Amino acid sequence: MTKEDMLETLARTASVTREEAARALEESGWNYSAALSALTGQETVSYGGAAAAVQEAPREDTAEETQETAAEEPRETPQPEPETARRAGSGDDKAASDGGSVGETLGVALFWIKRVFSILCTNNFVINRKGKRLMRFPAVILLALFLFRPWWMLLILVIGMVPGLRYTFDGAVLGNEKVTGFMKKINDFADKIEGEITRKNGGQ
Length: 204
Prior knowledge:
Number of strands: 5
Helix content: 55-70%
Structural class: alpha+beta
Largest sheet: 3 strands, antiparallel
Oligomer: single chain
Strand content: 5-15%
Order of helices and strands: HHHEEHHEEHHEH
Distance between the termini: 119 Å
Radius of gyration: 44 Å
Shape: rod-shaped
């Protein structure tokens, strides 16, 4: 007899669930007789591997005894879950959800900070004058200066355009057509202002 057959037979014979039958068999080391005895409280005798239950003579309960037993055994009613426990559970779930969303937000923010920092380190800010390169340094230095003194840096760059300084970027990212075109518009505007000033001074 396989374990599955033994389990089915025990559950059917003892009128118990499969889980109870399996637990009894495991506790008895898969000894069918011992498991059946443990479930039914009856002595069992094995004949050629099959177990026969030697049942005790059933005792007939009188109607009065049945009523007394029913009266003595109160029915258990399911207790509602305390409000405090429900609130604590919902609070834990909300805290876990908030913690996960905060962690994801921080992860995304750190990713973009590292990406921007890498771009600024590998691309350069270039200062030219009349087509000649005067200075070239990583764009991250320009960002650091702006973070330290933003208005002073803006004023210095604007004043630097008066004697003919022009600015641009180079690199794999900041040297693209859009950035270059934007910087060219700024430089062209500065050239236009410089030309107007030159003409006025020349006219005088």
